[in-house]
Amino acid sequence: MNDLPRLTGRIVAATDFSPGAADAVERAAWLAIRRNAELHVLHVFDDSIGASLRRIYDSAGLGQRPPTLETRDRLSALGAALAERHGLAVRVETRTGRVADEIGRYVAEQSAGLLVVGERAAGSRGAPLSGDSALNLLGKSGVPVWLVRRPVSDAPPSVLVAVDFSGPSQRAAELAAVLLPDCRRRLIHVHVAPDADRLRMDGATPAEIARLQHQAQAQAKKRLAGFLGQLAIPVDQADCILVAGFPVRSLVDRAGAEDAGLIVLGRRGESPFDERLFGSVAGDLLQQLRTDVLLVP
Q1: What is residue 56's predicted lDDT score, i.e. its pLDDT?
Q2: Taking the C-alpha atoms of 68, 70, 73 and 77 in order, what is their torsion angle to the nearest 10 degrees?
Q3: By C-alpha distance, which of 125, 132, 161, 128 is closest to 255?
Q4: What pLDDT shows up at residue 44?
Q5: Which of 68, 92, 159, 218 is the Cys-Cys partner for 79 at CB 3.0 to 4.6 Å?
Q6: Shared-domain flag, residues 160 and 98
Q7: Does one domain contain both 165 and 49?
Q8: Considering the entire predicted model, what is its pTM?
Q9: Which of 152, 178, 212 is at the close of a domain?
Q10: Residue 135: what pLDDT?
Q11: Which residues contact 154 (CB under 8 A, 6 or more apart)?
């Protein structure tokens, strides 16, 4: 067994003051309380939008305070309210630039262990956060990214950790245990079974098809047992799910059946192909799921 992953004492929540970002800040506060962590709330001024606003104010000779100062005041008030409501150490910060770049830079500067964002907090000018954008944040920050998509009440009702027996999926399973030790967590592995229709077209008998499918299931079960033995947390096979099918459809179906409040995904591989594949899966999941997703590098 390996040691459990450790998180630093800082959690960063990105906000653009949208309702989705408010949910993200509340989830980050909930996690910070349970991890005894320092909460950082970050707002990034989009440099292109900021320049446009400055030109409007300058040309019109408006006497009001610039929007940047109003936003800083609003952020300070948010931090003070969080600190009072939750008894947390809260630091607020603003940056100007490209949103994903500045978020990633700030996370690195603070040596944060987790980034929490809402569905719109890192999207393009209010657009929902896409799978590509989520993967971009993951790459730029280098830390796990929790994408909040549901209002926060308490702990997620249950957690599904998608595993493919890789190093990142091992880290995903272990991180879920560290962050959510009291939640019900289930590991799910989706494996590709022999295509019965194709086998029939090739002349295979029903008995041969059943034998091949059984072999695929047995192989996946054996690999799962080996994977569990490498984890730094005890996991009973009764808490593991083996499914034959397509990853996205199977995960979406199981998330509904389990009433999962969080899906945990480990980043697959290091090659450009693996990154494109991961981005595609994340994008498809974010499009079809209405639940939180934790992306683990």
Answers
A1: 45
A2: -120
A3: 161
A4: 92
A5: 92
A6: no
A7: no
A8: 0.84
A9: 152
A10: 65
A11: 30
Task: Domain of residue 286: give its range.
Answer: 155-297
Is there a single domain that holds both residue 143 and residue 13? Answer: yes
Distance CA 153, CA 104 (A): 28
Looking at residue 7, its pLDDT comes to 63
Q: Which residues of the chain have a pLDDT value below 50?
A: 1-2, 4, 52-53, 56-57, 59, 121-128, 269-279
Whole-number Å distance between alpha carbons of 279 and 133: 9
CA dist., res. 134 & res. 114, Å (int): 14
Residues 13 and 100 placed together within one structural domain of the fold: yes
For 272-284, give one letter per residue: b (16+ CB within 10 A) or e: eeebeebbebbbb
CATH of the domain at 213: 3.40.50.620
Domains identified in the chain, total number: 2
d(CA 105, CA 138): 12
Place of tokens 């054996």: 222
